[in-house]
Specification:
Layout: H1 2-14, E1 20-27, E2 30-36, H2 52-73, H3 75-138, H4 171-175, E3 193-197, E4 201-205, E5 214-217, E6 231-235, E7 243-247, H5 250-255, E8 260-263, E9 274-276, E10 279-283, E11 289-294, E12 299-305, E13 326-330, E14 333-338, E15 346-352, E16 359-368, E17 374-378, E18 381-385, E19 392-400, E20 405-414, E21 420-426, E22 431-436, E23 439-448
Antiparallel strand pairs: 1-2, 3-23, 4-23, 5-6, 6-7, 7-8, 9-10, 10-11, 11-12, 13-14, 14-15, 15-16, 17-18, 18-19, 19-20, 21-22, 22-23
Helix pairs in contact: 1-2, 2-3
């Protein structure tokens, strides 16, 4: 259509009707157009360069040729030679490209928001870490030295200055004091809240992969033929854990020389075993059955299923290891730490009869078992450890069975070897026993009044 329009304009400029028209390829990407018209007289066709009108016509034709050449090299060629289908395809591709670009922009904005959220969470965690690190020196009460008579009351010693932040210098004095009168039930003086855990003391490293995690114990109320210094150990790695190693004392444990090796009649599940009143208490593998193994007769003395308890990976601690049922000892006796479907994963406590394993009382807490690394009992109170791998973590929760109330706390705790698979309390020694990545360790603790 544009070519015809150009020709008609040429005809009008010449002032006559075109009689013939010819188009040829002039090379160099140009087209050559030629035409002839009839004239009544030869005079109307002057020789080239002799007429101003002809010169004007040539100028206009030159402009038209330039216009045609530009059109041939650009949009006109697309429309005339390739057709509307090609133009439509290019338009579709362009639209698709724009749509993908818009989608990429939206995805970039979404990722930017996620990065901002992560940065915000990291900042919150950093602030929380700084708060927890500073709290022991600013909020922990000073240690209290127990007196050697039953009239001692926590906090009654006037020599302590609660405003001082240098109380940690008195650690050696406190830990060397012998206080046998404070090892009784929770209702006598000295049985208070956990206020401090000393750094761990290492006693022995396991010899093989079988000792990566396990459980070690001392009986706070030992019976013949074994005394209270006897140390018991179970390496818990493996599908058939049945060996119970006995050492005369901590020195023999450090040297690695057992004096007694017992083969248990039924396999042990995980690291939840404990020792009390001459018996080993443990969970039978792949079940919720609790067993009491009598050390004197070397036989099973009692067995009982723990009602509704999860087992074999249903409600373990955060480190795993099938730690669904954790048996513990404190000043009040024998406890089971576990969870049930009814409790929806929250920690459930049951006090057990040490003779027949009957449940004497049950409490349900508000902290999820899978969210904490370990738990232990002191003076009728449950305590949980926040992490099993962090070098500097905390005892972060306490539940008091006397009041049926729980609360968050922050008592510093160290995982020196970064994989703590067992933490239990020994009321006879006033220590925590732990198994940290092949290492058998213990922690001295201090009890008092939480501020």
């Amino acid at each position: 259509m544009r070519f015809l329009a150009v020709l008609c304009v040429s005809c009008l400029l010449m002032g006559t009707q075109a009689q013939s028209f010819r188009r040829a390829n002039a090379g160099n990407g140009r087209c050559q157009y030629s035409f002839t018209v009839d004239s009544p007289t030869e005079a109307s066709c002057p020789s080239p360069g002799s007429s101003p009108e002809m010169e004007a016509l040539k100028s206009r034709l030159g402009l038209l040729e330039a216009l045609v050449a530009r059109l041939v090299g650009g949009e006109a060629v697309s429309e005339s030679s390739t057709g509307s289908g090609s133009h439509s395809g290019l338009q579709d591709a362009y639209n698709q490209m724009m749509g993908e670009n818009a989608q990429l922009q939206r995805e970039k904005q979404r990722l930017d928001r996620q990065v901002q959220d992560l940065q915000k969470r990291m900042e919150e965690l950093r602030q929380e870490t700084e708060r927890l690190r500073s709290r022991p020196c600013t909020q922990q009460p000073p240690p209290r030295v127990p007196e050697i008579d039953n009239s001692f009351k926590p906090g009654s010693d006037p020599t302590w200055h609660h405003s001082s932040t240098g109380y940690q210098e008195l650690t050696a004095v406190v830990t060397e004091v012998s206080a046998p009168n404070l090892e009784g039930p929770a209702d006598i003086p000295g049985c208070g809240d956990l206020v401090w855990v000393d750094p761990p003391e290492m006693h022995r490293k396991a010899d093989s992969i079988a000792g990566k995690y396990g459980v070690w114990m001392q009986d706070p109320e030992a019976k013949e033929p074994y005394g209270p210094e006897m140390v018991w150990r179970i390496d818990a790695v493996g599908s058939e854990v049945r060996q119970l190693f006995g050492y005369e004392n901590m020195d023999q444990l450090s040297r690695g020389f057992p004096t007694k090796v017992l083969l248990l009649p039924e396999s042990v599940e995980s690291t939840g075993a404990t020792m009390y009143r001459g018996s080993l208490y443990y969970q039978r593998r792949l079940s919720r059955t609790l067993l009491r193994y009598d050390l004197l007769s070397e036989s099973i003395a009692a067995r009982r299923d723990l009602p509704h308890s999860g087992f074999h990976g249903q409600f373990p601690y955060s480190w795993g290891g099938y730690t669904d049922i954790d048996l513990a000892i404190d000043e009040n006796g024998l406890w089971a730490i576990y969870s049930t479907n009814k409790a929806k994963g929250a920690i459930v406590l049951s006090q057990l009869d040490p003779d027949n394993l009957e449940v004497k009382g049950t409490w349900e807490t508000k902290i999820r078992k899978t969210s904490v690394a370990n738990a232990f009992m002191i003076c009728g109170k449950l305590y949980t450890v926040a992490s099993y791998t962090s070098l500097n973590t905390t005892v972060n929760y306490m539940y008091d069975t006397a009041t049926s109330q729980g609360k968050t706390i922050s008592v510093p705790f160290k995982n020196r070897y970064r994989y703590n698979s067992m933490v239990d309390y020994n009321p006879g020694k006033r220590k925590l026993h732990a198994w940290d990545n092949y290492y058998i360790v213990s922690y001295k603790v201090r009890l008092g009044t939480q501020q």
